[in-house]
Design a protein that fits this description.
The complex is a heterodimer of chains A (224) and B (418). Chain A is an all-alpha fold and 224 residues long. Chain A has one domain. A two-stranded parallel ribbon of chain A has the order 1-2. In chain A, helix 3 packs parallel to helix 6. The longest helix of chain A has 37 residues. The model of chain A has no long low-confidence stretch (mean pLDDT 84). Chain B has 418 residues and is α+β, with helices and mostly antiparallel strands. Chain B has three domains: 146 residues, conserved putative lor/sdh protein from methanococcus maripaludis s2 fold, CATH 2.40.420; 112 residues; 94 residues, Elongation Factor Tu (Ef-tu), domain 3 (Beta Barrel). Helix content of chain B is 31%, strand content 33%. In chain B, the strands form four sheets. A six-stranded antiparallel beta barrel of chain B has the order 3-11-14-13-12-15. In chain B, helix 2 packs antiparallel against helix 3. About 2% of the residues of chain B have low confidence. Classes of the chains: A mainly alpha (224), B alpha+beta (418). At the A-B interface, helix 3, helix 4, helix 5, helix 6 and helix 7 of A face helix 1, strand 1, strand 21 and helix 5 of B.
């Protein structure tokens, strides 16, 4: 049976669509959606970096540059960001699906569809970071929608704050959503699915925290 | 339905969580939560010559006014030899009068001449006597040759002193003689004039200038002359007067129609500034006249031309200047400075002159430092600042021209941050 991908419906009328997905043999509009999502990801990151998110390392030496030099560095940062957006989208759509596929008996492309919604929600989270920074001065790891704020109160250690900052309501929803879908589509036992999904996310959060903590350090190593 | 209730709980939980976090952020007094500042617009202070000017108007006028008087007792007035508007040099005849007491005048002149001559003779005689006065040497008479040398030595200083006094006297008297002789010449010429011109005497002008007024009714002053050097005159109101001091520089601008060969801007200084107004009264507006002396050529300008003046009341040369909107006025002045470490600092500064939206900063800022302008509520002390990409400062064509190491560094940075 042919299933025409409709992400929004998948989001809100999960049961019906999951049912159709399970039954489907062919999927329509697959690559169209992939391309659309990649484009959306790039656009989202262009927007966030246009506004200036993530530019702290550039600000450090800002006063040494002329206006034009400063803007150039920001422009190249933005270009780097678009590459990041691309990589992130590919990772979320394909790599995570690959992990699910390894441990579950579900066709790969169906898993990708699940991840499409995950990507959408992640992009939505990035969009919330823009007004939070511009109007409230909070960066992603202390967004009020994450656990970074309480973590800041308890400790000053940066990477702990980063890890907890990575855990946001969006992430929690994503976990729940992934568990639900996998549960429906696959035959694996429920607690294994829970364990797998949470474990994967913990890995991702730790990786994010490490990257955020050591990004300048790594940069120096690479460029020197 | 159970589903709907669950969803409702979850939503409420999420909202509550977000609210709690927001409250924690809001009441974060100990700065536990790291916050950044978004700076949309910033600027730098620059070096500039600040000039504070006071604008007023003035009119060109003669710098000096001279008057000539006529004493009716000297004679009866005959006629003016000049008319208003004439340019007069020193020595030109101004008016003639008939001497009423011709004979007594000549007699008195002659008598004075005679007296002067006698005085001159007496002085000359005195001078001759002085010169022939030999300082007497003390007489030792009959002393031996040996003691004569001694005595001469003793007399030497005394002789020199008296000699000096004698020369001094001679010089004094010679000066007096010269003065008397000059006076005699004058009297003799007046006498000669009287005798030659009959009863009429022409009075000559002792000044240079242009005749502006002649009093036909012989009121004093008889003739008013104004010099050709110009100055600018004006009046200051009470509030203006408080800001102006003598010796301030003034820029004089002639109105739009340019005079040929006349530069449109002249410079001058306030040469005089009155401390009291024309009219002192509670009901009247007090006006304080002032005069400006002009540097530079004013050939084509006539008295009576109006000009607009800018009095430079204060000046700060090469001052570190910042635009007003960058500085905050609370009790002391502050500025938000984006420093070299990438954070915002709240710095106290001291300012001086303020002109046209620019302020001189006397302490606390240097040119080249960045000042954050906007949006103010996002500025936090010690926060790392972030700026959006400024479109106007970016030339897209030149983006790839940046050095490859910079490209690599910042591109990777964009790639690796979260």
């Amino acid at each position: 049976m042919l299933y025409s991908i409709n992400l929004l419906q998948l989001l809100f009328r999960r049961e019906d669509h999951l049912f159709k997905i399970k039954r489907a043999e062919r999927l329509q509009n697959f690559w169209k959606w992939v391309v659309l999502l990649l484009a959306t990801s790039i656009l989202t990151y262009i927007w966030t970096s246009w506004v200036g998110l993530g530019m702290d390392p550039i600000s450090v030496n800002a006063t040494e540059f002329t206006r034009m030099e400063y803007e150039f560095r920001k422009a190249w940062f933005l270009i780097g960001r678009t590459a990041f957006a691309l990589l992130l989208a590919i990772f979320v759509l394909f790599i995570t699906s690959f992990v699910w596929w390894l441990f579950n008996n579900v066709p790969y492309n169906k898993l990708v569809i699940i991840q499409m919604n995950v990507l959408l929600v992640m992009l939505l989270e990035r969009l919330t970071w823009i007004p939070l920074l511009v109007y409230a001065g909070v960066d992603w790891y202390v967004s009020p929608l994450s656990f970074g704020v309480p973590a800041s109160y308890f400790t000053d250690i940066q990477w702990i704050i980063y890890i907890f900052g990575a855990i946001s309501v969006f992430q929690l929803w994503i976990i729940w959503y992934q568990v639900r879908c996998l549960n429906y589509l696959s035959a694996t036992k429920k607690h294994w699915i829970w364990f797998g999904v949470i474990f994967w996310h913990i890995l991702l959060w730790a990786g994010t925290a490490a990257l955020s903590n050591y990004d300048i350090f790594l940069l120096r190593i690479i460029t020197s | 339905m159970k589903r709907k209730r669950k969803i409702r709980y979850v939503v409420l939980l999420v909202i509550g969580f977000a609210l709690l976090n927001s409250l924690l952020l809001y009441f974060d007094t100990g700065n536990k939560v790291e916050q950044k500042s978004y700076v949309n617009e910033w600027s730098e202070p620059f070096t500039y010559d600040l000039v504070e000017k006071l604008e007023t108007t003035g009119v060109f006028a003669s710098a000096e006014s001279n008057h000539v008087y006529f004493d009716k007792n000297e004679g009866s007035f005959r006629q003016f030899l000049v008319a208003p508007g004439d340019e007069i040099s020193e020595g030109d005849g101004l008016y003639e009068y008939e001497v009423t007491n011709f004979s007594s005048q000549t007699a008195s002149l002659k008598a004075e001449a005679k007296r002067l001559e006698e005085e001159i003779e007496a002085i000359e005689q005195y001078i001759i006597e002085l010169e022939s006065f030999d300082i007497p040497e003390t007489d030792n008479g009959g002393s031996s040759f040996f003691s004569q040398d001694e005595a001469e030595e003793e007399d030497q200083p005394k002789t020199i002193e008296t000699e000096f006094m004698k020369q001094e006297q001679i010089a004094e008297k010679e000066l007096e003689l010269a003065q008397k002789e000059a006076k005699l010449t004058m009297v003799e010429s007046q006498l000669a004039e009287l005798e030659a011109g009959g009863k009429t005497i022409t009075v000559e002008s002792p000044f240079n200038g242009v005749i502006t007024e002649i009093s036909e009714s012989l009121q004093s002053p008889l003739i008013t002359m104004k010099t050709t050097t110009l100055q600018v005159e004006g009046k200051l109101t009470e509030s203006e007067r408080k800001k102006v001091q003598p010796d301030m520089e003034v820029e004089i601008k002639l109105p739009n129609e340019e005079l040929p060969e006349q530069p449109p801007l002249l410079r001058g200084t306030i040469s005089s500034l009155r401390n009291f107004p024309d009219h002192v009264s509670v009901g009247w507006q007090s006006e304080y006249p002032f005069e400006v002396s002009i540097e530079g050529a004013t050939e084509n300008i006539l008295p009576g031309y109006h000009a607009s003046l800018s009095i430079i009341t204060a000046r700060a040369e090469e001052a570190v200047t910042a635009f007003d909107y960058l500085l905050l006025t609370e009790d002391d002045l502050f500025a938000w400075v984006m420093n070299e470490k990438g954070t915002l600092t709240y710095r106290a500064i001291e300012t001086g002159l303020e002109v046209n939206g620019m302020t001189e900063v006397t302490k606390g800022l240097e040119t080249g430092e960045w000042l954050a302008a906007y949006p103010r509520d996002q500025f936090r002390k010690g926060a790392t600042f972030l700026t959006p990409i400024q479109w106007e400062d970016l030339y897209i064509k030149q983006i790839p021209d940046v050095s490859p190491s910079v490209i690599k560094k910042y591109g990777l940075m964009g790639l690796m941050t979260r």
